[in-house]
Amino acid sequence: MWFYNQETKKIRISRDFQLPQMQGEVQTCQDLDNLPTAVMEHENHEVPINTHEAVPHSQTKEAAIQIEGNQLELTVKSKRQPTQHLGYMITWHKDGSLGLSQSDLIRKILYDNDMSDSKGGKTPCNGKFYTEIDDEGEIIAITAYQRAIGSLNYLAQHTQPDIMFTINQLLRYSIKPTIKHWTAIKHPMRYLKATINLSLNFSKCTNKTLLEGWADADYANDRTDRKSITGIRTSGYRNLISWLSKKPTVVAQSTTEAEFIAMNICAKKLRWMSFLLMKMGIEDSKPTLYNNTSGAMTISKQATLNPNTKNIEIRFQYLRDIVLKRQLTIVEVGTDNMLADVLTKPLGL
């Protein structure tokens, strides 16, 4: 089996495949125009090619197979950039940046739910978006609701962090959705219709800090159990890497504790990313964690906790330990600069 990697411009051959009539250290093959059809017609990062389509031997030097033991490697020339990969739409810009979106999936979701001709919305949800279990409401088709919310959740997890909070709220009612919840689920669909041409942008950056994280919390957000909402965002060279919006399993007893829970989750994620980069041989300056609550920032710099804050001692000690070891820097930012705010509360105009 052959695999073509568009990024490295190389064809990889599995170790257990023995190419016949290959001898010596370097063999040449046909020029690029005569490569197997599967390579030329697909733009995925790795395209499987049947072994019977193996590139035959010739004397041209447009492509060459490097043989090292049982490993074979074919280097080819290609000027084409991939525009699709596993459902992602990739847009390449002249400045070297690229945009990532799933516009085809959005169109499919709108079509499947009869929203293709709907009017676009300005926000993922209205400013007073607080859903709750509606025991007296008429239950709608559960399968249709679950299919719609599942597709929207896939979008939120991959390329649409702006709808993450809304979708997480609506996911809670997948077992017993009512007309009220079905009406609410149409709001993010209208928002996606209005923003279908927008994409996540990844650009070159000279920022010296490789890893950064933003941690935010909305205290006692849930009206049913009064649990808070935690929002986490991490980035590398200011390019978005991951995002998270979830309801913790514990009930925070203060705004400070809710923020500490968020900071603790973000710190652990940044430490894991640092270890991963070290394994990859990438030198990393210590990550920076941003938070916008002065109370949590003040406590994080103290040597001990007072009796009123001992309930967060374990999270406090973990943060204090990695800060003292200079494995993490915690910085306070204003609310206007809190990039994780969109993951903790609805946005309304």
UniProtKB/TrEMBL annotation:
Origin species: Austropuccinia psidii MF-1
Top-level lineage group: Eukaryota
Identification of the protein by name: Reverse transcriptase Ty1/copia-type domain-containing protein
